[in-house]
Automatic annotation (TrEMBL):
Signal peptide start-end: none
EC number(s) recorded for this UniProt protein: 3.4.24.-
Molecular function via GO: metal ion binding; metalloendopeptidase activity
Enzyme class (EC, first level): hydrolase
Family: Belongs to the peptidase M76 family.
Organism per entry: Citrus clementina
Protein name: Mitochondrial inner membrane protease ATP23
């Protein structure tokens, strides 16, 4: 979130909400429902195993002025932008995406969000592993399903997020993304393990 000190937080620019959005209270209820989502539960278990368990206040609904869906703030938690949420699937996706960032930060003590390659790597993983680019979600955004769309979609969304990092120019974001793409796209932890 842009209000937070930059190196601590990851700006996101993946909001696809076009309607009025939800109130903070409605969004809190949707967050509670997300905690029963199997992928959210799976990631929560793995965070706990890695020593980064979280409590009830870790995921918060907030009103966002910027056109973002949510964000992760180091040491504080996950923010979900209620005014940019309409359906449960959007809330689930924001939480799953941000939990992958939290997981990356937990497993790598030296992760530095002001490092464009570190940020790009976590965005590649979060974009790919969360299912943000599942073709059904891409169709809803108005993108056609084509061969190779998933990687194109992940690239597009990684660029949006990394460019929003005040430490990364567009050129630096692109270079960083290309440099780490293969390693990070194929790094599927913790989804390659039993819960
Ligand atoms: Zn992200």
């Amino acid at each position: 979130m842009s209000e937070e000190p930059a190196p601590k937080s990851i700006p996101e620019s993946s909001s696809s909400a076009v309607n009025g959005g939800r109130t903070i209270e409605e969004c809190q209820d949707m967050i509670q429902r997300s905690l029963r989502n199997p992928t959210v539960k799976f990631l929560r278990q793995h965070l706990e195993k890695a020593g980064c368990g979280f409590g009830d206040k870790f995921i918060k609904a907030v009103h966002c002025n910027k056109k973002i869906a949510g964000g992760y703030v180091r040491g504080e938690g996950i923010l979900v932008c209620s005014n940019h949420m309409n359906i449960q699937d959007e809330v689930n996706q924001v939480i799953i995406h941000e939990l992958i960032h939290a997981y990356d930060e937990c497993r790598a003590a030296n992760l530095d969000w002001s490092n464009c390659a570190h940020h790009a790597c976590s965005e590649i993983r979060a974009g790919h592993l969360s299912g943000d680019c599942h073709y059904k979600r891409e169709l809803l955004r108005g993108y056609m399903k084509i061969r190779g769309h998933e990687q194109d979609c992940v690239r597009r969304r990684v660029m949006k997020s990394v460019i929003a990092n005040p430490y990364c120019s567009a050129a630096a974001a692109k270079d960083a993304m290309e440099a780490v793409w293969d390693v990070c796209y194929n790094d599927t932890q913790p989804f390659d393990r039993a819960p």
